Amino acid sequence: MGMTDPLKGFGVTLSKMFKTVLTEEYPEVKKIPAPRFHGKHQLNRHPDGLEKCVGCELCAWACPADAIFVEGGTNTDDERYSPGERYGFDYQINYLRCIGCGLCIEACPTRALTMTNEYETADDNRQNLIYTKEDLLAPLLPGMEQPPHDMRLGDDEQDYYVNGPELARGQGVPAGATVETGDEEAVR
Amino acid sequence: MTEANAPDGTAREAAGSPLTPVLTRRWLSPESWSLRTYEQLEGYTALRTALSLHPDQLTELVKAAGLRGRGGAGFPSGVKWGFMPKDRSRPHYLVINADEGEPGTCKDVPLMMADPHSLLEGCVIAAYAMRANNCMIYVRGEALHCIRRLHHAVREAYEAGYLGENILDSGFDLDVVVHAGAGAYICGEETALLDSLEGKRGQPRLKPPFPAQAGLYSSPTTVNNVETIASVPHIVNGGSDWFRGMGREKSPGPKIFSLSGHVERPGQYEAPLGTTLRELLELAGGMKDGIPLKFWTPGGSSTPLFTADHLDVPLDFEGAAEAGSMLGTTALMIFNETVSVPWAVMKWTQFYEHESCGKCTPCREGCFWLAQVLERMVQGRGTEQDIDTLLDVCDNVLGRSFCALGDGAVSPITSGIKYFREEFLALCESNRGQDTTEEPALAGVAR
Amino acid sequence: MTVAPASGNDTAQSRPVPEGHVRLTIDGIEVDAPQGELVIRTAERLGIVIPRFCDHPLLDPAGACRQCLVEVEVNGKPMPKPAASCTTAVADGMVVRTQQTSQVADKAQQGVMELLLINHPLDCPICDKGGECPLQNQALKHGRGDSRFVDTKRTFPKPVSISSQILLDRERCVLCQRCTRFSKQIAGDPFIELLERGATQQIGTGEQQPFQSYFSGNTIQICPVGALTSAAYRFRSRPFDLVSTPGVCEHCSSGCSQRTDWRRGKVMRRLAGEDPEVNEEWNCDKGRFAFRYATASDRITRPMVRDADSGELRETSWTEALRKAADGLLNARDSRGVGVLPGGRLTREDAYAYGKFARVALGTNDIDHRARPHSNEELDFLGSSVVGTGPEDGVSYASLEAAPAVLCVAFEPEEESPIVFLRLRKAARDSGTRVFHLGQWDSPGVEKTTHIADSGSPIHSGGLLRCLPGGEAAALYELPSEVEQALGEPGSVLLLGERCSQVSGVYTAAMRLAERTGARIAWIPRRAGERGAVEAGTLPTLLPNGRPVSDSVVRSGIERAWGMSTGSLPSVPGRDIDGILAAAESGELSGLLVGGLDPADLPDPEQARRALRAAGFLVSLELRPTGVTEHADVVLPIAPTVEKSGTFLNWEGRPREFEITIEGTGAVPDCRVLDTLAVEMDVDLFTQTPQAVAAEIRRLGPNPGARPKPPDIPAEPVTEPSGDRALLASWRHLLDNGSMQHDEPNLAGTARPPVARVSHGTARRLGLEPHQPIRVSTERGTIALESEVVEIPDGVVWLPGNSGPAEVNEVLGVGHGAVVGIAAGTAPAPGTTPGQREPGGEELPAVAGNGHTSNGHGPPAHGSNGNGQAGIDGGGA
């Protein structure tokens, strides 16, 4: 060890002061990931707040990690969660297993399941990392109503699937405003 | 149509017709439907002759006469009778198909209205030949007046001993039941008719077994058309050579041609098979108001269309087939230049959509689809692509359906497009160039 | 079948066509097929799968869907149109070209597929059939990528419930008619029919038809689309997330093979398995839908002992429970002895363990599994004629089908063994078997095996031989000569039901009849475990495999096999179930070991409860609490069928082995519990696993000694009571209050409404208005039930055994053949007719009555039908 060695250390420090800082100031400053980052999942809603998920389990089928569990349920006239006959009664994603591949959202026939840019899926206990339907459902936007409730936008599910946003505009939602969750900007 | 529309025999002879009327000759007599009139005009004379013969001699006679079924398919009647077993271990049935449902056809109802006893006499002879002791006449339910007249005739015949036990001391028994159908085109198909008679849903049965082995109540059964059976007494009286003297080699005998549509005098015209439309039009006084002929059906809507080019096609089973159509029930619907072919085809297709029994996929779904496409085209919302779709769907229905209903349903469409494609194209004119491949929000669910 | 490649023509030319076969060519492959075989099957045997929807090998061909079109050439002449291969029979020299080699066939099939899809909704993601749907599969395989159909689809309100169990989605229906053909041809319950026509043709329900069938679940399974779905399974899971395990139904003695679909440790649904020898491809709704009892919330999962201080049962460890049970049983054994009541629902292996436990650990023959009315005559009959027989040497399903005549004695096939009923119906329909029933009234099961009117000419054969309840034995001696003659034809069969044990002398009379006519006898118990238990030796007179207790040579053989000292096996026949209970009540026995048994099933439930209460020490092995649990000192939980392996013997004596479906639940079978309990009592049973037990049963082999003597009990005369007395006739409905149908409301909705049946004469005698309730009473209690007038002998009242309020054993304390009091009850409140269908879903257009009940339209020339209702009404005396 030579005499100048301690100074070399200061030299490194000094030189770094003039370079770009690599340190992330997380969690004080949250990093914004790329727009198509595969983050936490979201279960989207129709413009009136009904759920888009029909409990078809295709996401669970597509999942290579067997991270998703779904069980369907029957909508009744008294208790309706989605347009049509069937809704997702139980929906669980196990983030201990999820590999973020996104095959599930490609499998979804109603675009009920999408991925957000939310990446904070860490916890100190395994139980909390099994997200249930309550954790995954999209927040209610203005004009939306917490299910269960009747179909507000049409007589049957076809109305929702074929022209749900137009029907919502017909009910007073201004053009250009997001009327259903599922678009990333609705979440931001 | 009533007997008032029946042709005037003398008038026709004056016009140089080649034939003396056979089946229709009593139609204009006073109270022609009554037993009295019938007996005065040689009625039930053939029956006496027939009952003195052996049943098989009668079958041979009908075979020799070359009588072919008048219900549309033209199957040789004698051969059909010959299929019936000779033993009597099970009851035999004769069923008369009087469910005249083919659009444009109106020959059986007038015949039964004007001359019901000729049918009954034919029934007794045919039943005797086939060793059947039960005969059912399945009449179209809408023809109420006709049913009443048949009932009356049956009553008269029972009273006179032409029906019932030991007919004319021959030891032969026959019961005749007049059964009113409930109005379904499919019940004109012989096996559907049998199901309907049994009280079941009228849908065609699987063949084999053919009715001659297992028909009504799984017993040997022959189903014949009214006109076929009504021809039998004349054959018995006149002999096979006389019968063969009329018509053509392979399709002998007289035939009632039902002319309807744009002709001066629509009605029933009896002429030998092989007569052309040109000759028939002359009898009927030509086209109505002189407007030229555009298209016509040789045998109801289930037979491919003919045009003015086919005026000289001999109207018998072979002639019509050679010209690309079928003789069918000789229901000649004649349309003049004022009629749109796509519109007429649409109306017919709507009929088939309504009357398809629903048993098999091609006919049930095909007619449903074809009708919608045609309706759309007639409303001016069709595209050229639709014409190809129509033809391809027709191809998927033709020969693929369970019974002949599907085949009949597509023939006006295919023949209509064949001869009048430009009319279909003209309907699509307004949509030409439009992007027809635009995807609906969900394929196939646009509604 | 022989398959010869087309290139091997030289050898094929020389090879003769086997007798009864024809030689044809399919897609260039030459093949010999039995005459009359349908082209679609021949092709399938060659591995050429022709797509199809309406075709089903067990149903008559329909030719409705037209999906299986192929090109056919006969005698060198091509047929003008493509032919439906499901309706075309093979012919010599036929040349068939399927979609694989023929453009025409391929185009035709694609065309039909497109037509099928134009009106089919795009709801595969929410459809229960999605993932296992023939239409979906074939659309993906043969269909177009996109649709040319841009017009309006036909729509219907959906779904409609056509029964509490079955939901109908008419949009998805492809109208293949499998369901209607099944219900007409196989089940004989034409509760669904085609309505309307053309594109609006749809499946619907009949207006005047009883709206239920015991076999309705099969229509769901054979539906090639998701048009018929089950209310119980609706949206529960998807096929790709299910594990399918083959199994055997535990409900009745038919022995149906079944498929259990489960996920995450829970059974989601059950389907009929395929076994051509037994259930073909069908099962009954009870077997299909009743399985949630095993996951009921009150299921006992931990051992319980009765707390000495509080007197209540408390959960405890296996160690403590077994210790307590062993101590208690040892004490009781050494005091005055222990009786064993294993119940009739055990596997053969579990029953064997009970039998061995009784003999080895408890040193007694006081064991009887017959938790139902029973008799000593039955015991002798089982030992002499039933035990040791099997489908090879005894009566089997196949022999029912081949029989010229079958007589059901005190046996209601549709209610007691539904697959036997289906086979009898098939026999009557297809093979001309004449089915006679010795009973009281023309029940639906009788009607459907004697009058068959689905297609072609109606069949009327066999018939009901009416007799007074209790008069069955006497009636067997005085059968109409027509019946006696029919039974004399070789191959005829007598079927004896559970009810025979309630009529004195029936077994004897049946055996005499069999001797007279040469007919063979089969015994058809109601419960799945009874036949196996007879073989396993859980009867007071029988050791395993039919060895009589009283035979000392046989006993010493068993002693050697079980490693016991000579003479240690009890030599005196034990008490039967009544005797055991009476002894327990009077203190002659000081302990009871009770398996799956409910006191309410016993002939006298009150006496049974008194005995259970009086028993000094009571050990209960149970799945769920019953009337036994409340008196038990120790309760040991055991595994339900789905969580264990074993073997049921069905009524034929055919072993129906099954493996564990749901593993790792920790539940243990009875044989393991008894083995461990025995170890606690210092005895080794070696019955730790069902496999070990099965091996031991095999090692023992058949009975080397003589069979016990057959019963010889004379028939007792029965007289028709008068006044306000009547003879009670009673049997159980298939769907009733049984504990294994727990928590199945949809299934319960399809049960037959409980009604009391009396004759016109009896109704007049009582002054009964139509549907007015009738009160049936004994000293014990009264059952009031809506009445229905049927053709039944005067002075007889019929009650369902265990349906709704009619719990005959429980309330009346008597059974079939007993004298009861009858009186008119108060008129029912309007609108409370039992058995009315719950309103649910949309209203269906209904067919007007006569649309499909063609049985009244016989051909006039056929004259009167020749059914054998040669009355022996009022017979007996």
UniProtKB/TrEMBL annotation, chain A:
Q: Which residues bind [4Fe-4S] cluster 2?
A: C63, C98, C101, C104
Q: Which UniProt keywords apply?
A: 4Fe-4S, Cell membrane, Iron, Iron-sulfur, Membrane, Metal-binding, NAD, Quinone, Repeat, Translocase, Ubiquinone
Enumerate the Gene Ontology biological process terms.
Answer: aerobic respiration
> Gene3D superfamilies given for it?
3.30.70.3270
Q: What's the top EC group for this one?
A: translocase
Protein EC: 7.1.1.-
- Pfam families per the UniProt record, alphabetical: Fer4_7 (PF12838)
Q: What GO molecular-function term can you cite, just one?
A: NADH dehydrogenase (quinone) (non-electrogenic) activity
Domain called 4Fe-4S ferredoxin-type: residue spans: 43-73, 89-118
Q: Which residues cross the membrane?
A: none
Q: Which PROSITE patterns match?
A: 4FE4S_FER_1, 4FE4S_FER_2
Q: Name the residues that bind [4Fe-4S] cluster 1.
A: C53, C56, C59, C108
Catalyses which reaction?
Answer: a quinone + NADH + 5 H(+)(in) = a quinol + NAD(+) + 4 H(+)(out)
What cofactors does the UniProt entry give for this protein? [4Fe-4S] cluster
The way this protein sits in the membrane is described as: Peripheral membrane protein
Instruction: Give the CC-aspect GO terms.
Output: plasma membrane
Q: Which InterPro entries match?
A: 4Fe4S_Fe-S-bd, 4Fe4S_Fe_S_CS, NADH_quinone_OxRdtase_chainI
Give the UniProt subcellular location, in the record's own words: Cell membrane
Check the record and name the NCBIfam families matching this protein: NuoI, PRK05888.1-3
Describe the protein's quaternary organization and the partners it interacts with: NDH-1 is composed of 14 different subunits. Subunits NuoA, H, J, K, L, M, N constitute the membrane sector of the complex.
**Can you tell me which family this protein belongs to?**
Belongs to the complex I 23 kDa subunit family.
Q: What name appears for this protein in its UniProt entry? A: NADH-quinone oxidoreductase subunit I
Per the UniProt record, the source organism is Actinopolyspora erythraea
Lineage per the UniProt record? Bacteria, Bacillati, Actinomycetota, Actinomycetes, Actinopolysporales
List the gene name.
nuoI
From TrEMBL, chain B:
Q: Which cofactor does it need?
A: FMN; [4Fe-4S] cluster
Q: Which SMART domains match?
A: NADH_4Fe-4S
Query: Is Methyltransferase included in the keywords of this UniProt record?
Result: no
Against InterPro entries, the record matches this protein to:
ComplexI_51kDa_subunit, NADH-UbQ_OxRdtase_51kDa_CS, NADH-UbQ_OxRdtase_suF, Nuo51_FMN-bd, Nuo51_FMN-bd_sf, Nuop51_4Fe4S-bd, Nuop51_4Fe4S-bd_sf, Soluble_ligand-bd
Q: Name the keywords, alphabetized.
A: 4Fe-4S, Flavoprotein, FMN, Iron, Iron-sulfur, Metal-binding, NAD, Quinone, Translocase
In its UniProt record, which GO terms are filed under biological process? Answer: cellular respiration
Q: Which residues form the NADH-ubiquinone oxidoreductase 51kDa subunit iron-sulphur binding domain?
A: 342-387
Instruction: Cite the EC number.
Output: 7.1.1.-
SUPFAM superfamilies given in the database record: Nqo1 FMN-binding domain-like (SSF142019), Nqo1 middle domain-like (SSF142984), Nqo1C-terminal domain-like (SSF140490)
Q: Which residues form the signal peptide?
A: none
Which GO MF terms does the UniProt record name? 4 iron, 4 sulfur cluster binding; FMN binding; metal ion binding; NAD binding; NADH dehydrogenase (ubiquinone) activity; NADH dehydrogenase activity; quinone binding
- Catalysis: reaction(s): a quinone + NADH + 5 H(+)(in) = a quinol + NAD(+) + 4 H(+)(out)
A single Pfam family, by name?
Answer: NADH_4Fe-4S
Q: What family does this belong to?
A: Belongs to the complex I 51 kDa subunit family.
Its function, per the record, reads: NDH-1 shuttles electrons from NADH, via FMN and iron-sulfur (Fe-S) centers, to quinones in the respiratory chain.
Q: What is this protein called?
A: NADH-quinone oxidoreductase subunit F
Taxonomic source organism: Actinopolyspora xinjiangensis
UniProtKB/TrEMBL annotation, chain C:
Q: Compositional bias of type Pro residues: which residue ranges?
A: 705-714
For the region Disordered, give the residue spans.
1-20, 700-721, 825-877
Which key words are in the record?
2Fe-2S, 4Fe-4S, Iron, Iron-sulfur, Metal-binding, NAD, Quinone, Translocase
Catalytic function, reaction form: a quinone + NADH + 5 H(+)(in) = a quinol + NAD(+) + 4 H(+)(out)
Which GO biological process entries does UniProt record here? ATP synthesis coupled electron transport
Record field: compositional bias (Low complexity) = 825-835
User: Which Gene Ontology molecular function entries are recorded, alphabetically?
Assistant: 2 iron, 2 sulfur cluster binding; 4 iron, 4 sulfur cluster binding; metal ion binding; molybdopterin cofactor binding; NADH dehydrogenase (ubiquinone) activity; NADH dehydrogenase activity; quinone binding
Family assignment?
Answer: Belongs to the complex I 75 kDa subunit family.
Q: Could you identify this protein by its name?
A: NADH-quinone oxidoreductase
Organism, per UniProt?
Actinopolyspora xinjiangensis
Organism lineage string: Bacteria, Bacillati, Actinomycetota, Actinomycetes, Actinopolysporales
